[in-house]
Amino acid sequence: MVGGDRRVRITSVKNPLIASLRALKAKKAREDMGLFLVEGEVMLREALSSGLVPRALLSEAETELSSSFPEAHTVPRSILEAVCDTKTPQPMCAAFELPALTPLADAPDRLAALDGVQDPGNVGTIWRTADAAGFQGMLFGEGCADAFSPKVQRAAMGSGFRLPAIPAEPLAPALAELRSRGYKIVASALDGGDFYPIPDLGERFVLVIGSEARGVSDEVRREADFLAKLPMRGRAESLNAAVAAGIMMYALMREREGCR
């Protein structure tokens, strides 16, 4: 539960507000309360500027950001250490309402899709890179790290507030629906064809990135118009999922812009 006196100093981890914010480390609590935690001043400012709804702020000292929150409290570092996911937390954190998920029916034209990508750092980095490259949304298939976990959002560095998350579980039927609406689907696969020359995907497309361990699933492979891999010109057998996704996203956007 988030609520109570709006401007008191809190010193006990047993305080009801602190207990509720500590619980936000778990996905079920985030879903039940409709809240997630954002850590650090830079990320808090990103969340506010992106239009997320603020609920409760905790900070070690008085801050000008307090006026943006219906509830703001000063706390000792021990409280931040108990609430935050990081071992050495920044001087402030805050609860925000979870952003509304975008339904598949309202998906934009350029999408990245995750098929079982479990590492939160990879998920957040792909999200951030998709935002930077000019993609417009992220499809989350089954088996992925939770989009609004603290680790994912730290790696996304604010892109998780701007680029919409689109639930797509299971992923294969979602891709089939998008194909029926004119999207081209390209999936990264170690046994796929060479990514270069870059396939012409038109204006509406989805780039699918598979799990770190097994790649894209058989069901997703069957929905792909192209299975593609980056050439390994050295002795490395593969690339980190987020690195491969970044190379492909920028290349696809360059191809799209060059074909206009």
SSE arrangement:
Elements: H1 16-23, H2 27-33, E1 35-39, H3 41-49, E2 54-59, E3 71-74, H4 77-83, E4 92-97, E5 110-115, H5 120-133, E6 137-140, H6 150-156, H7 159-162, E7 165-167, H8 171-180, E8 184-194, E9 205-210, H9 218-223, E10 226-229, H10 241-258
Parallel strand pairs: 2-3, 5-6, 5-9, 6-7, 8-9, 8-10
Antiparallel strand pairs: 1-4, 2-4
What report would you give on this structure?
- The structure is a single chain.
- The protein has ten helices and ten strands.
- The protein is α/β, with parallel strands linked by helices.
- It folds into two domains: 16-97, 60s Ribosomal Protein L30, Chain: A, CATH 3.30.1330; 104-258, SPOUT methyltransferase, trefoil knot domain (Alpha/beta knot).
- A six-stranded parallel β-sheet has the order 7-6-5-9-8-10. A four-stranded mixed β-sheet has the order 1-4-2-3.
- Strand 5 (110-115), helix 5 (120-133) and strand 6 (137-140) form a beta-alpha-beta unit.
- Helix 5 (120-133) runs parallel beside helix 10 (241-258).
- The protein starts with 15 loop residues before the first helix and ends with a helix.
- The relative contact order is 0.13.
- The model has no long low-confidence stretch (mean pLDDT 94).
